[in-house]
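Thread: "does anyone have the structure for this chain?"

Original post by V.I.:
We have the sequence but no experimental structure in hand. Need at least a predicted one for the grant figures.
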Amino acid sequence: MPFIDLQTQYAALKSSVNARIQRVLDHGQYIMGPEVKELEAALAAHAGTAHCITVASGTEALLIAMMALDVKPGDEIITTPFTFAATAETIVLLGAVPVFVDIEPDTCNIDPRAIEAAIGPRTRAILPVSLYGQVADMDEINAIAARHGLAVIEDAAQSFGARYKDRRSCGLSTWGATSFFPSKPLGCYGDGGALFTNDAALAQAAREIRVHGQSQRYTHTRVGVGGRMDTLQCAVVLAKLERFDWELEQRLAIGARYQQRLAELPVQRLAVRPDRDCVWAQFTVLLRDAAQRTAVQASLQAQGIPTAIHYPRPLHQQPVYTAYAPTWALPHSEAAAQRVISLPMSADLSAADQDRVVAALGEALAGARD
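Reply from O.Q.:
Generated one for you, tokens below.
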């Protein structure tokens, strides 16, 4: 059983994917070809934003978003430590300082109540992560930012397509930044990402930054990076968009079925707030502790069921980021890192395979009671 079933997805989209790739091979514009603008228009429409700028990766999206905001060395960016390293590394690469605040224990998203107390004179932006496919409480975060004159960058690497009230992830704040890494809800066949905004000046800055700061060829008006998304990868995402709405419906249904079936087992299911949904980039539950998790993983592996841990160590405890550990405690982030486990999840996960996962998990938990 695959952890994420990309082969079944490809089989369903094979003719479209192959035709799209062949079109690029025929016209030969591998960098900034026509598929780039076509994809940007389609993505902006899907997210409900005025502008979309495709970039080389989700990491590059975060970096370019902060560069467009003119984040400088010494500026502080408030974020969560319970996330992938890219969230913090892009801050540090610019010489800025990640300020970590704790998560909500039931959603694993950043706790808005912890943000305001962490704001200081050097704070420049708030960077919430839409973890596992559910958007954080963006209205409250935006309100905090507005009171203090801060920008908000949604790290939506795991949540493209998710809904928050009557809007979609990536269209909720100053910037939305997503990833098209193959395992994401909308993925390409390599690296890719995108930025979303309604601010025309920021969009123009990002377009220049991604091509080495050029406002026109060989006119460098700002410091930039080589941050373009390849035309071939844009072609793949265009093909995948053909059934993306269906895949979102499947993810919601499969996630709801997991939640229902797992209610019978001694695991903590993630809460999904009633004013939003979750597209389940990972279907993650929390076990009792790390020892139980180790035993459960071994049992599931023996039954041919893959699992993963997103994430085993919060960033403030990672060797390279311990210097940024705050003076306040982050108990929920530390506890989640010891307890989370992700189960197989994709839009093509069959009910039979899902039942197999749940049954195997039940057996594993029964064997790991002590």
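V.I.: this helps a lot. Residues 37 and 178 are 17 Å apart (CA to CA).
O.Q.: and The longest helix spans residues 6-27.
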